[in-house]
Amino acid sequence: MTNVEKIKQTEAYVHNQLSGEASGHDWWHIYRVTKLAKTIASVEGADVFICEMAALLHDIADEKLNESEEAGLKKVESWLQRIEVEEASMKHIMEIIASMSFKGGGQPPMKTVEGQVVQDADRLDALGAIGIARTFAFGGAKGNIMYDPSIKPRRDMSKEEYQKRDNTAINHFYEKLLKLKGLMNTPYGKQLAEDRHLYMEQFLNQFYKEWEGER
Predict the structure, then answer these.
(1) pLDDT of res. 95
(2) Higher pLDDT residue, 142 or 6?
């Protein structure tokens, strides 16, 4: 099986697994992240096959969508074995997926340029107009309120505290989204993050004006 065929089969597998998922981690998130990863990989000179496969499969392993992180990673490993990805490539893809999640911040840096590319692509999809839309979609799916001025953003969260995500949608901007621009890895990823970060700041300024009933 060629790499092109492996990617095509993986696209179909992931689409089947995540289509209709309502928390913002659906197939279209995967679609956008994969396109971004391919673009950044071509600019940064990374292995496009590794980047594309890791981008396609990264949320199959997400512990928010599995009974545990270990169970999710096992699912990815089983798929890679099923389509006969060579051992070195499989190890590289698995390492990227196991290491790329935000988890409240403070995670060690990605070890390879391919990991940096895929992490940047995933973080870019949490920024800008799409990032805003996904934040409110996720909050609604989890039953969180939109905003309460008396509930302040949390600081220095543990992984467990971050994963509870039992806070307001607006606070998520301060707990994660506005931090991402400074956490980008690649030069091109940093460049793409600038406009998306600015758009979120403009949105928040407008949100607070409208919240107070200003014209």
Answers:
(1) 93
(2) 6
What own/partner pairs with CB < 8 Å and gap ≥ 24 does 199-207 have?
Answer: 199/127, 199/128, 199/129, 199/132, 200/127, 200/128, 200/131, 200/132, 200/173, 203/132, 204/170, 204/173, 207/147, 207/170
* Among 150, 59, 126, residue whose Cα is nearest residue 96: 59
- pLDDT score at 60: 87
C-alpha dist (Å) from residue 146 to 40, 132, 141? 33, 12, 12
What 3 state SS string does the chain have?
CCHHHHHHHHHHHHHHHHCCCCCCCCHHHHHHHHHHHHHHHHHHCCCHHHHHHHHHHCCCCCHHHCCCHHHHHHHHHHHHHHCCCCHHHHHHHHHHHHHCCCCCCCCCCCCCHHHHHHHHHHHHCCCHHHHHHHHHHHHHHCCCCCCCCCCCCCCCCCHHHHHHCCCCHHHHHHHCHHHHHHHCCCHHHHHHHHHHHHHHHHHHHHHHHHHCCCC
Please name the amino acid found at residue 106: G
- Report residue 51 as tokens: 């980047």
pLDDT, position 166:
63
